[in-house]
Specification:
By secondary structure, the protein is an alpha+beta fold. The chain is 31% helix and 18% strand. The protein has a three-stranded antiparallel sheet with strand order 1-3-2. It has a three-stranded mixed sheet with strand order 5-4-6, with no helix packed on it.
C-alpha cells in the first residue's frame, strides 16, 4: 500500500520525536512530491498555491529539515540553494546542474568511487559531487 505524501511527511518528522507542525509537514510534502531539488522560490510558489507561509518561516523550516536529515541542500551553478527530501533516498549520491536552465537533478545511481579509495586513517563524513552540463530538456533536438 502506497502512503500519501502527507502521511509520509508526518511519519518522518514523528520518527525523530519532533512535532509535525503544519509548516514543517507542508514543506516536506512539497519536497517529497518534487522530481528534482527545488529552489526556495519554487518551494514558496508550491506552498502559496495551498495557502500562505511567510518567507522567514520557510527559511527556518528548510534549515530545520536539513539539520534533522530530512532534506539536503545543493548549491546550483547559479549559487542558489536547491532542496531535496532525503526521506526515501540513499545518501552519498551525485548531482547534475544544468548550466542552461539551472535545474539540479539528484543522480542516485551514480556513486562516487573516491569514497572507496581514501587513505588509511581518513573517515569520510560528507561528500559533494556536482556535475555540470546540459539536461535533456535544454539540448537541441
Amino acid at each position: 500500500m502506497v502512503q500519501s505524501t502527507k502521511i509520509r511527511a508526518e511519519a518522518a518528522i514523528a520518527n525523530l520525536g519532533e512535532r509535525a507542525t503544519q509548516a514543517r509537514r507542508r514543506t516536506l510534502e512539497v519536497l517529497l512530491k518534487a522530481k528534482r531539488p527545488l529552489s526556495h522560490a519554487e518551494i514558496e510558489t508550491e506552498l502559496t498555491t495551498r495557502g500562505t507561509l511567510d518567507r522567514v518561516t520557510l527559511y527556518r523550516v528548510l534549515d530545520w529539515l536539513v539539520a534533522k536529515g530530512l532534506a539536503h541542500q545543493i548549491e546550483g551553478h547559479d549559487r542558489a540553494w536547491r532542496f531535496n527530501a532525503t526521506v526515501d533516498e540513499a545518501r552519498g549520491h551525485a548531482h547534475f546542474c544544468c548550466t542552461d536552465c539551472s535545474k539540479v537533478y539528484c543522480l542516485t545511481s551514480v556513486k562516487p568511487a573516491f569514497v572507496l579509495s581514501l587513505p588509511p586513517g581518513f573517515r569520510l563524513g560528507e561528500a559533494d559531487l556536482s556535475l555540470r552540463g546540459t539536461c535533456p530538456d535544454c539540448q537541441p533536438h
